Amino acid sequence: MYSVPFVDPSSPPPFTAVLLAGGKSARMGRDKAGVLIDSQPLWQRQLATLRAIHPHELFISGKPDGPYADTGVEILADNFPGLGPLAGLEAALRRASHPLVLVLAIDLPAMTADFLSRIVRHTAASATGCVPRDDHWFEPLAAVYPRACLPLAEACLRDADRSMQRFVRLAVEQGFMRVRELADSELALFKNLNEPGDL
Asked: Are 164 and 196 in contact (CB under 8 A)?
């Protein structure tokens, strides 16, 4: 694995964005998508964050009858149901019309459009994706993936270890992804909501 300096070209490449909203929310006890943050449902907040960076196409990976069902955004069903966020990513990579796919998890309410825009711009100099990393821990649910890693996602979904950490590690090792080391000031962007006490 290797790190690269942070670049900020004047214009980002065309990209697809997908909101990953298909989790079971077992620890939260209810669908995270409907949780209110500053009086706004989380799904609306996260979609607004993605729209603010002007993706060329936008999808939601989630349940067809989720609270976002009537927003006019296409909802993607998993081709590997029940296998977690990697299945949502696989569906997005398969459906995307552009070489790069930005993913944002439903449960990262502190994430900003500015940060996402910067990691998209980070990919402009090459066809590789970009994944943030804190020390040795990847942050794969606010990252950019190249559509070219679809076969790797499919292979990982057929293995016993379907974790995003393993998938991203392999994607980096195989040259699909570059690592963007996080500054201490950016770590708070990745605080996620898992349980009612996190609200």
From this structure: no
Is 141 inside any structural domain? yes
pLDDT digits (tens, 9 = 90+) for 164-193: 999 999 999 999 999 999 999 999 999 885
Per-residue pLDDT tens for 105-126?
999 999 999 999 999 988 876 7
Q: Is position 67 within any domain?
A: yes
In the numeric block, the tokens 């398969």 are attached to: 94
- Other beta carbons within 10 angstroms of residue 127's beta carbon come to 13
What are the φ/ψ torsions at residue 180 (nearest 5 degrees)? -115, 105
Q: Read off the tokens for 85.
A: 């966020």
Task: Tell me how far apart the 2 most distant CA atoms of the chain are, in Å.
Answer: 43
Q: 68: closest CA among 37, 100, 45?
A: 45
Full residue range of the structural domain in which residue 42 is found: 16-185
Tell me, yes or no, whether 180 lies in a domain: yes
Q: What is the CA radius of gyration of the chain?
A: 16
How many domains in the chain? 1
Place of tokens 């976002």: 68
Select from 147, 25, 158, 135 the least CA-distant residue to 79: 158
Cα–Cα dist 10/120, whole Å: 11
139 domain-assigned: yes
Give the length of the chain: 199
Residues whose CB is less than 8 angstroms from the CB of residue 79 and which lie 6 or more positions away in sequence, other chains included: 87, 90, 91, 94
